[in-house]
Design a protein that fits this description.
Strand 2 and strand 3 form a beta hairpin. With about 200 residues, this protein is α+β, with helices and mostly antiparallel strands. The chain has five helices and ten strands. The protein has a six-stranded antiparallel β-sheet with strand order 1-2-3-10-5-8, with no helix packed on it. A four-stranded antiparallel β-sheet has the order 4-9-6-7, with no helix packed on it.
């Protein structure tokens, strides 16, 4: 297959653009995740090996055309790819900046203590369930998602992979989620727990 070369200026500033640097790292990660060599990616994308190599090393600023070709190969929109290379997350998330979401029907309140970010694999959530609340999920958002559930106050019953667990204050359940799960408040005063989520 003949490769189409993108026209990219060879002139670089003395310092690499931070976004280009993060984008280069992400492009290299995507290729490594699939186990492809530069030659294989070149065959799939129609972009020369040298251009791909220079983009991954942030020696060039990728053109929209180049990114469009790579997005097609990796099954992403350009917006998705660029969101994965956002600026580094803020080190401190102030209490007032932690988003709170409430499901009034089920009695579930969720505070995103450490919100998800494209540059991070984990997040922390403070959850509250009202007395009698019963939440059932038919599947995880990501198969194999790692979860750690630490009970701060009250009691919680968790069902996962056909195993039932009763957790009281101070208990912690560690699991990988492959299928349906169920969370039921087992305390007449309600339950408050910390959920740590780690993407595979």
């Amino acid at each position: 297959m003949s490769h189409i070369r993108d026209t990219v200026p060879d002139v670089r500033s003395d310092e690499t653009d931070p976004v280009d640097a993060r984008l280069g790292v992400r492009l290299a990660e995507l290729r490594a995740e699939r186990g492809w060599s530069l030659g294989e990616l070149a065959d799939r994308s129609g972009v020369s090996r040298s251009t791909l190599s220079r983009a991954e090393r942030a020696e060039i600023s990728p053109t929209a055309s180049l990114l469009n070709r790579l997005c097609a190969v990796y099954g992403r929109t350009m917006s998705q790819l660029l969101s994965e290379v956002e600026a580094e997350p803020e080190a401190v998330v102030r209490s007032a900046a932690q988003p709170v979401w409430q499901d009034r029907t089920s009695g579930f309140v969720r505070r995103s203590v450490s919100p998800p970010h494209a540059a991070l694999r984990g997040e922390l959530v403070e959850a509250r369930l009202a007395p009698g609340a019963d939440l059932a999920y038919d599947r995880p958002p990501v198969t194999g998602l790692e979860q750690h559930i630490w009970i701060l106050e009250g009691a919680l019953e968790v069902t996962a992979q056909d195993a039932e667990h009763r957790l009281d204050t101070g208990d912690c359940l560690r699991m990988r989620v492959w299928g349906p799960t169920r969370f039921r408040c087992a305390d007449p005063e309600g339950v408050r727990y910390l959920l740590a989520v780690v993407r595979p």
